[in-house]
Write a structure and sequence with these properties.
Number of helices: 8
Radius of gyration: 17 Å
Oligomer: single chain
Helix content: 25-40%
Shape: globular
Strand order of the largest sheet: 6-7-8-3-9
Number of strands: 9
Structural class: alpha/beta
Largest sheet: 5 strands, parallel
CATH topology: Rossmann fold
CATH superfamily: P-loop containing nucleotide triphosphate hydrolases
CATH architecture: 3-Layer(aba) Sandwich
CATH class: Alpha Beta
C-alpha cells in the first residue's frame, strides 16, 4: 500500500462573481513510503491548494485522500488536524513561525500539536539544522535562511511519515537554497520520511528522480489561479 493515495480529487472555490471555479481535478496520484517527488507548475495553478488538501488544511469537494492508511475525507477539521500532527510535517514557503516565540519554542509548539513535547529532541533538531547557537532567538533575530531552518526542524518534530514542502527555497538566495534543499532531503532520508516538494526551480527539479507536472495531473477544466490564502 502506498503511503499517500488519492483518487478522483476535486476542489473548487467561489469566485467574486459568484460562479464556481474548479481548481483541482486529479484522477489519481500516489507516493510510496520514503519516496521523494518534486511537483512543478506555474504560479497560481493550484500547487499550494493541492498540498493543503493532502494535509487536511482544506477539505476537498469530493474524492479520496489517505495518508498512512488514514482517510482525510469526511473527517472533521479536528480529526484532520490530529491526522496531520500524527503523520505529516509541513514546510511553508513563508515559514509560518510564531513571532512571539523563540526558535526552540516554535519547535516545541509543533510537538504539542502531536500531543507530546520532547524538549531534548527539539533542541537536538535545531542543532542538526545548524541553529544550536540560536535556540533562544526570536524569528525577527534570525536571517531568512535561519528562519527556514527552524521551519524544517518544526516539520520534523513529530517524526512524520510524509513531509510536504511548499516552495521551501522560494525566499532564499542560491547558496541558501542549495543548503536548505540538502538539509530537507537528508533529514527525510535519516528519518525515513517521504517527501513531496513543490518548486519551479529547474535546478531543484532536476535533482529528483521523479518529478510531476501539476498540469499533467490536473484535469480541471477551468484552472486559473488559487484563491487568496
Amino acid at each position: 500500500m502506498a503511503l499517500l493515495e488519492l483518487t478522483d480529487l476535486r476542489k473548487s472555490f467561489t469566485s467574486p462573481d459568484g460562479t464556481r471555479q474548479l481548481v483541482i481535478q486529479i484522477p489519481q496520484f500516489s507516493l510510496d513510503a520514503k519516496e521523494m517527488v518534486a511537483l512543478y507548475g506555474p504560479s497560481g495553478t493550484g500547487k499550494t491548494t493541492f498540498l493543503h488538501l493532502i494535509a487536511g488544511i482544506l477539505a476537498a469537494d469530493s474524492g479520496h485522500i489517505a495518508v498512512a492508511g488514514k482517510s482525510m475525507m469526511g473527517a472533521s477539521e479536528a480529526d484532520r488536524d490530529r491526522n496531520r500532527a500524527a503523520h505529516i510535517g509541513y514546510i511553508f514557503q513563508t515559514f509560518n513561525l510564531l513571532q512571539g516565540f523563540t526558535a526552540r519554542e516554535n519547535v516545541r509548539l509543533g510537538m504539542a500539536f502531536g500531543g507530546s513535547v520532547d524538549n531534548a529532541r527539539a533542541d537536538d533538531l535545531l542543532r542538526r539544522v545548524g541553529l544550536g547557537h540560536r535556540l533562544d532567538y526570536f524569528p525577527r533575530q534570525l536571517s531568512t535562511g535561519q528562519q527556514q531552518r527552524v521551519a524544517v526542524a518544526r516539520a520534523l518534530a513529530n517524526r512524520p511519515q510524509l513531509v510536504l514542502a511548499d516552495e521551501p527555497t522560494g525566499n532564499l538566495d542560491t547558496v541558501n537554497s542549495r543548503e536548505v534543499l540538502e538539509l530537507i532531503r537528508n533529514a527525510c532520508t535519516e528519518t525515513g520520511a517521504a517527501l513531496l516538494l513543490v518548486s519551479h526551480d529547474p535546478g531543484i527539479l532536476g535533482s529528483f528522480k521523479r518529478s510531476e507536472s501539476l498540469a499533467d495531473l490536473n484535469h480541471a477544466s477551468q484552472l486559473r489561479s488559487d484563491p487568496p490564502e
